[in-house]
Specification:
single chain, alpha/beta, Rossmann fold, D-Amino Acid Oxidase, Chain A, domain 2, 2 domains, nine-stranded mixed beta sheet, six-stranded mixed beta sheet, 13 helices, about 35% helix, binds flavin-adenine dinucleotide
């Protein structure tokens, strides 16, 4: 694959969209040159929690009211991708813990979506986090939500891309580079809008800053625990607690106010964790006006887009990679390609789809 006679493609960006798409293009036989200003571990993808969470995302913060099938389609591509990458996929499920009225509302929303959300047995709560069963009389469990470890998955994507003959370069891809490109260019540039002068669809992206906390700990949960206003999970030998949603902000500054807010959100359910000792990590998500990514051809010939993942970049990455690869290679992008077509936000596209 990607041999000397193979068609070339440039992918800009080393977050999960760029790497998953670069990998899919290499697997389709293309010679991939990936250029990124920020290495994978420092991207928004690198600081993310890695939840593949169609159920609780749809119930707590749906990207679009009818996005469930799309989110499920993204999730369902993960077992195959994780297998190809040789990384583990946590399918323990996710639990929700909180006041009765909040849990009742969540249960009703999952039921209305046709998703499984049922009271967790004590043993199941213990499987997610030791001590949970004895501390909380009730939890809502969904087997629909899974998780991937972002740093491990990004590293595995880099390795596999290189194994398939792809190259990775550190650098900024400029408007001049775009003018000069002799191969198709896939922009997986996250929230960065530097190239919007030539790629008008990028103008619709807006930033949502996210701050997430990590601290070491002896017995972090093995599954995801959602609480009102926060989530807690085990990652890198410690606890990860997230995350703020700061619309309109694109700076990477960690601030104490956000940390206090997140620790406060944890305090009701995990008072012993609402103490000092947390490190703040920051990433910026890119959001489109309809909450769904742009995946496919730009109105600018030779340019393809894989951007605008909002909160669900990890969940949707394999699906976006598949759609963009089909667009580059001239194949049919499948059921979701029209919905994610970047032309819906091109100038003159008319009314924006909801
Ligand atoms: C705190 C937090 C928690 C999250 N948790 C989850 C979660 O649990 N599950 C989930 O599905 N999603 C989650 N997300 C969302 C997810 O992380 C993002 O949707 C996803 O990371 C977006 O990936 P991306 O590849 O589009 O962009 P990014 O990861 O931001 O990568 C963009 C890349 O493009 C490069 N780039 C940009 N412009 C240029 C240029 N001109 N030249 C060269 N390189 C350029 C950057 O350097 C970088 O390498 C979370 C996000 C945050 C911030």
């Amino acid at each position: 694959m990607g041999g000397s006679g193979a068609a070339s493609v440039i992918v800009v960006g080393a977050g999960v969209f760029g790497l998953a798409t670069g990998l899919a293009l290499a697997e389709a036989g293309m010679k991939v040159r990936l250029v990124a200003a920020t290495p994978p571990d420092l991207t928004a993808s690198g600081v993310a929690a890695g939840m593949l969470a169609p159920a609780f995302e749809m119930a707590l913060d749906p990207p679009a009211t009818d996005a469930l099938d799309l989110l499920l389609a993204g999730r369902d591509l993960w077992p195959d991708l994780a297998g190809r990458l040789g990384v583990s996929l946590d399918r323990t499920g996710a639990a929700a813990i909180g006041p009765e009225t909040w849990l009742d509302g969540l249960e009703a929303r999952l039921a209305a979506l046709g998703l499984e959300g049922r009271p967790a047995e004590r043993a199941e709560m213990e499987a997610i986090s030791s001590g949970l069963g004895s501390r909380f009389p009730r939890a809502l469990l969904t087997p629909e939500d899974w998780r991937i470890e972002p740093q491990a998955a990004l590293q595995a994507m880099v390795r596999r891309l290189q194994d398939l003959g792809g190259t990775l370069e550190t650098g900024t891809f400029t408007l001049q580079d775009l003018e000069d490109a002799a191969s198709p260019v896939v922009l997986a540039t996250g929230v960065d809008r530097r190239l919007e002068g030539r790629v008008p669809e990028l103008a619709g992206l807006s930033p949502i800053k996210g701050q997430i906390l990590w601290r070491p700990g002896p017995s972090p949960p093995v599954g995801v625990i959602r609480t009102p206003g926060s989530y807690l999970l085990g990652s890198g030998g410690g606890f990860l607690a997230g995350a703020t949603m700061e619309a309109g902000r694109s700076d990477l500054a960690a601030d104490l106010e956000a940390q206090v807010e997140l620790r406060g959100a944890l305090a009701d359910t995990f008072p012993s964790l609402a103490t000092e000792g947390w490190v703040t990590r920051v990433g910026v998500r890119a959001a489109t006006p309809d909450g769904l990514p742009l995946a496919g051809a730009s109105v600018r010939p030779g340019v393809f887009l894989a951007v605008g993942a909002r909160r669900n970049g990890w969940l949707l990455a394999p699906l976006v990679a598949e759609i963009v690869t089909a667009a580059v290679t001239g194949e049919d992008g499948g059921r979701w390609a029209p919905r994610l077509d970047p032309s819906r936000f091109a100038p003159g596209a008319g009314e924006v789809q909801a």
